[in-house]
Design goal:
The protein is built from 12 helices and 20 strands. With 420 residues, the chain is of the alpha+beta class. It has 2 domains: 245 residues, FAD/NAD(P)-binding domain; 84 residues, Alpha-Beta Plaits (2-Layer Sandwich), CATH 3.30.70.2450. Helix 1 packs parallel to helix 3, helix 1 packs parallel to helix 9 and helix 9 packs antiparallel against helix 10. Bound molecules: flavin-adenine dinucleotide. The site of flavin-adenine dinucleotide has 30 residues, from helix 1, strand 2, strand 3 and helix 9.
């Protein structure tokens, strides 16, 4: 079969979860994934650690997938300290379980799953892949989408390749659809969803506008050997130059307020060397610390952008393809899973002709404001983390607020997706 109800570009968590939702609703789905191999050390612990919030946990629970996640049962929250009191953080400022008033979230059922847990990206993707395959989703790896065209009347499809007589092909020829090119091959579908991540080709080829703010810093996540670790202070250390933190010995996180220049250079092909990391760590920590070996490293920024519309005709966006922001506060994966949960049943009903007028457009109407709120949440954290006199002043005020009962409850509610 070369015609599908839906083609999804990208087999990340958003694409995989969405594929399962659509297949569960009896739609034929093809995922085209650029990477040949789904495995990456960056998806494994500790780099692959991801905080899941209440809506994500509930969405996985509803589909019977939560129980298949095993690792969180053995994971210790790296931010929780020896006594396990820390529940999370805002801009690196911890809030504690003891201060959170859970009585203010009365709508939770007594047997509801947890409000938050830590998962591993590799395991989550493996669980979602298993479900998608079991439901008949066709996943083709090593095929990067590089061309997209949509048509309202199906005419372009008639002139391209053989017609097939399956239901999806008939729907496409009747109602129009999308032609997708990947790896020199042509695929056809009624709908295309870009779940192809931050640098989405579908977003660009589909004519979407991506607006937002430029980065203040380059973030580093690295596994290194440190010859003289005693030179570094323990915990999350903010200095006039940035921030550094070891989640475990040698697992280094840094924020260097360089306007995102190093990340950009790295993306453009400049290698991330041991010397480079050591220079950054020495500058941020104000020490002469020595990195003796670099095992793996990656960079990221706080660039915050969002597609102004999540739909353009028969092309839609979900996950990082629709919105990017810093990983501070751990919201990106949760947003993507939420997009998928919202879009899946609406698109399926549209495909089957049972959707009321306007149902599909409620995807953008409901999810865009939630994404915009998360982008602002990440921007607010950057403002509080800036190593400037203004940033330090804000940080002190937030520290006071976070340590109140109202403050801790508010921050936990926002981070766990359960409060206002
Ligand atoms: C250090 C760090 C920590 C984080 N911590 C958290 C956290 O605690 N909680 C949280 O919610 N989020 C967190 N995030 C964010 C989260 O990981 C991402 O938001 C999430 O993985 C995005 O999922 P996605 O499926 O939208 O995109 P991705 O995971 O980026 O998947 C996109 C897929 O599309 C494929 N692709 C790309 N181009 C093409 C193409 N042209 N054709 C076909 N396929 C293509 C890619 O190979 C990839 O497999 C963190 C991110 C980082 C960097």
């Amino acid at each position: 079969m070369n015609t599908y109800d839906v083609i999804i570009a990208g087999a990340g968590p958003a694409g995989l979860f969405l594929a399962g939702e659509l297949a569960e609703a009896k739609c034929s789905v093809l995922i085209l994934e650029k990477a040949e191999d789904p495995h990456s050390p960056l998806k494994l612990l500790p780099f692959g650690i991801r905080g899941l919030n209440a809506p994500s946990i509930e969405a996985l629970h509803r589909r019977g997938l939560l129980d298949q996640l095993e690792l969180h049962k053995r994971l210790q929250n790296p931010f929780s300290g020896a006594r396990g009191k820390q529940a999370g953080h805002f801009a690196g400022i911890p809030f504690e379980y003891a201060n959170i008033d859970t009585e203010r979230w009365p709508r939770r059922a007594p047997d509801a799953p947890p409000t938050h847990l830590l998962a591993e990206l590799a395991e989550l993707e493996a669980v979602l892949t298993r479900r998608a395959l079991a439901l008949g989703v066709d996943i083709r790896r090593g095929l990067a989408v590089d061309g997209v065209e949509q048509s309202g009347d199906g005419a372009m499809f008639a002139s391209r390749g053989p017609r097939s007589d399956d239901a999806a092909a008939r729907r496409v020829e009747r109602g129009g659809g999308v032609a997708v090119r990947a790896g020199g091959q042509l695929f056809r579908a009624g709908w295309l969803i870009g779940c192809d991540g931050a640098r989405s080709v579908v977003r660009k080829a589909g004519g979407f506008t991506f607006e937002g703010t430029e980065p203040a810093f380059t973030g580093y996540s690295a596994k290194v050997d440190i010859a003289d670790p005693e030179k570094l202070a323990a915990g999350r250390v903010t200095t006039p130059q940035g921030m550094y933190f070891q989640s475990q010995p040698g697992y280094l996180n840094m924020q260097d307020f360089d306007g995102g220049a190093s990340h950009q250079a790295h993306q453009a092909g400049q290698p991330l060397t041991r010397e480079r990391l050591q220079t950054v760590l020495r500058r941020i920590s104000g020490t002469g610390v020595t990195i003796s070996a670099l095992h793996i490293a990656t960079t990221w920024t706080d660039r915050a952008r969002q597609a102004t519309s999540y739909r353009n005709g028969r092309i839609l966006l979900a996950g990082d393809a629709a919105h990017i922001h810093s990983p501070l506060g751990g919201q990106g994966l949760n947003l993507g899973l939420g997009d998928a949960a919202n879009l899946g049943w609406k698109l399926a009903a549209t495909i089957h002709g049972t959707a009321p007028e306007g149902l599909l457009d409620s995807y953008h109407a409901e999810r865009h404001p939630i994404g915009a709120k998360v982008l602002d949440w990440s921007r607010a954290q950057v403002a509080v983390m800036r190593p400037t006199p203004e940033g330090r002043a804000l940080n002190a005020i937030f520290r006071d607020l976070v340590n109140t009962r109202d403050g801790a409850t508010y921050f936990a509610g926002r981070v766990w997706g359960i409060g206002a």
